[in-house]
Design a protein that fits this description.
InterPro entries: Homeodomain-like_sf, HTH-type_TetR-like_transc_reg, HTH_TetR, MT1864/Rv1816-like_C, Tet_transcr_reg_TetR-rel_C_sf
GO molecular function: DNA-binding transcription factor activity; transcription cis-regulatory region binding
Shape: globular
Number of domains: 2
CATH architecture of the largest domain: Orthogonal Bundle
CATH topology of the largest domain: Tetracycline Repressor, domain 2
Keywords: DNA-binding, Transcription, Transcription regulation
CATH class of the largest domain: Mainly Alpha
Oligomer: single chain
Distance between the termini: 41 Å
Mean pLDDT: 89
Low-confidence stretches: 1-6
Order of helices and strands: HHHHHHHHHH
Organism: Amycolatopsis panacis
Pfam families: TetR_C_33, TetR_N
Length: 210
């Protein structure tokens, strides 16, 4: 199935980015409730008809925003330091970049992974495309440290689900009032240490090594 995401010519990219930046700002500042065509148009200083013209409506705008969010994640993963002789350390750097991305904008992360917009279901072809271009970063790093005969794709999936679980729980905990006698202190540093410990435990359990 073709995506609902509307393609544009290169000359339109600047205007398109302006609307997507506005949509990301609305999502961060006002949450999902503010993510309407009118809200995005107002933030971009444009009319609602302009948004409809460029994206075909709310679903087209959400598709484009969904795709843009994954573009930003991929850029962050690609921005980690160049590969070193320590493949495990390099993999851990990518995992840390993933957590930083999630913490930078929980609302954006929710749009990507948590179905936070209850009536929005990204087009399957669009989902397949963003997954293929983003999670290849994990597969590439894992390929360097996978034992012979072990599927790097399987390892990447298991590692990502662990990372996603840790991040999702952290976001939930940090959005709520702290309770006494919880497993760890309610600080970013404590959560960061637990995340690193969990990722390393999964790496070890998968038998990944330099």
């Amino acid at each position: 199935m073709a995506t609902r995401h509307l393609s544009t010519q290169p000359a339109e990219q600047h205007h398109r980015r302006r609307f997507l930046d506005a949509a990301l700002a609305v999502l961060t500042d006002r949450g999902v409730a503010g993510l309407t065509v009118r809200g995005v148009a107002e933030r971009a200083g444009a009319s609602t008809i302009t948004v409809y013209t460029r994206f075909g409506g709310r679903v087209g705008l959400l598709d484009a925003l969904y795709e843009r969010a994954f573009d930003l994640l991929r850029e962050d993963l690609q921005a980690v330091p160049p590969e070193t002789d320590d493949g495990i350390a390099d993999l851990l750097e990518v995992a840390q970049a993933y957590r930083r991305f999630a913490m930078a904008s929980p609302a954006r992360y929710g749009l990507m992974f948590e179905r936070s917009v209850h009536d929005y279901d990204p087009d399957p072809a669009l989902r397949a495309g963003v997954v293929a271009t983003t999670f290849v970063e994990f597969v590439t790093k894992i390929n360097r440290v996978s034992p012979p005969g072990v599927s790097a794709r399987d390892c990447a999936y298991l590692l990502w689900t662990s990372m996603h679980g840790l991040v999702s729980v952290e976001l939930t905990i940090r959005s709520q009032s702290h309770i006494e006698d919880w497993f760890l202190d309610p600080t970013a540093e404590a959560h960061g240490r637990m995340y690193r410990h969990g990722v390393l435990a999964m790496i070890t359990g998968l038998g990944l090594r330099n």
